[in-house]
Amino acid sequence: MNESISPNMYIKPDYGMQVEQWVAKGNQIKSLDRGTSTHNLTFNNKPKKIVSESQCDGQEARKLKEQENKAPVEEVHALKSWVHARKGRAKELSKLMGHANAYISQIQNFTRSCSKEKMAEIKVKMKEIEKLENMTKRDGEGR
């Protein structure tokens, strides 16, 4: 056991020839022969979700459909001017529609998008509120 241990004793014999070739080439790794690429892996080696081109086309089509379904800007501005014409209209409108008070405000300020169907529903409710306002004026029950 008094033998001196050289580093070559720890290299397996079948790899000795490859190591000698590697040393002769200048000790540079140019390619991995049998390795796996980590390009398609995320943290903890879980595979990434790869989005295909057909899925991208579907997403773009969905975005275009949403853009087409949005209420026009002019209608939203008309809603805003209608709400500001009389005090309490936003509260009445949100109460009739069954939404929170901030819902109408968010639509007016363009922080929430509004579909054409929802805008049509808002217009119907606006007319109902105007009828109620006109009835209270004629009956003399106003404020």
Written account of the structure:
- It is rod-shaped, with a radius of gyration of 36 Å.
- The protein is an all-alpha fold and 143 residues long.
- Helices cover 55% and strands 0% of the residues.
- Helix 4 (89-97) crosses helix 5 and helix 4 (89-97) packs across helix 6 (116-139).
- The protein is built from 6 helices and no strands.
- The protein has a domain at 72-139.
- It has helices at 16-24, 53-69, 73-85, 89-97, 102-108, 116-139.
Comma- or semicolon-separated keywords:
143 residues, mainly alpha, 6 helices, 55% helix, rod-shaped
**Structural class by helix and strand composition:** mainly alpha
Order of SSEs, N→C?
HHHHHH
Characterize the biggest β-sheet. Answer: none
Gross morphology is rod-shaped
Radius of gyration: 36 Å
Task: Count helical runs.
Answer: 6
Strand content: under 5%
The end-to-end span amounts to 110 Å
**Assembly form of the protein:** single chain
Share of helix, binned: 55-70%
Round the mean pLDDT to the nearest integer and report it: 77
Runs in which pLDDT lies below 50 for 5 or more consecutive residues are none
Q: How many strands in all? A: 0
Set down the secondary structure blueprint.
Blueprint: H1 16-24, H2 53-69, H3 73-85, H4 89-97, H5 102-108, H6 116-139
Helix pairs in contact: 4-5, 4-6
